[in-house]
Hints:
Radius of gyration of chain B: 16 Å
Strand content of chain A: 15-25%
Radius of gyration of chain A: 18 Å
Helix content of chain B: 10-25%
Strand order of the largest sheet of chain A: 2-3-1-4
Structural class of chain B: alpha+beta
Number of strands of chain A: 4
Shape of chain A: elongated
Number of strands of chain B: 8
Largest interface: A-B, 42 and 23 residues
Number of helices of chain B: 2
Distance between the termini of chain A: 11 Å
Oligomer: heterodimer
Number of helices of chain A: 4
Largest sheet of chain B: 4 strands, antiparallel
Amino acid sequence: MMVEIMAMIRRDKLSETKKALEAIGLGAMTIQTVNGRGLQGGNMMTDIDPVIPESFDSVSKITSSLTPAHYALAHSLTRPVFWIPKRMIQVLVPDTKSDLAIKAIMEANRTGKMGDGKIFVIPVEETVRVRTGQRGPSSL
Amino acid sequence: MKMIQAIVRPEKENDVVLALEAKGFPALTKAHVFGRGQQKGLSVGAVHYDELPKVMLMVVVPDKDSETVIDVILQSAKVGYEGDGRIFVTPVRESYTIRTGEKAV
């Protein structure tokens, strides 16, 4: 059997995570840009997600990018929802390697502050490699 | 645990999120996706839209809460016309909080 490891991580930890996974022989992954929020309900304090592009000082940030409050006003919403930008990586591994991969992702991403992210482990029944038609763990 | 993936109308995203938050499920992930359903997109006159923009919301909850979350999404995302979206429920074997290394099954 195989498992899919789905991890929501900080944007600036992506390359470290990729290196950590490559070091244990897991080069193949899917990466997606997502927004999310955790149990704190999307607190946008800078120490939760410290990456603010350098071209944005505080003034231009307010005027040039749409803040959640601005969005809520423009769309007649009752209350803004604060989203934190994240990267989602999905790695498919055989059952035997899942603990190793989880450990690698955790060590690469742990800063000890809120917003480090979550890892979900989802069982996968079947995989097929499109080019050859191989099935099962050998197709990963 | 269960992962509930709901593909909803973009304009209903805020309603669904606030409804879930009111029931005590603040944590979720969203991604903007494109897709089509059984109607194979949308035809408006001579123009055919093959892929329509949707928002995918992903919530992971304990088994006992999954029915509640599904009900909340069904009620808050409903408009009554084709294109309201779908809900998929996937089993999740384990979940970890990276900050503490805590494991939940």
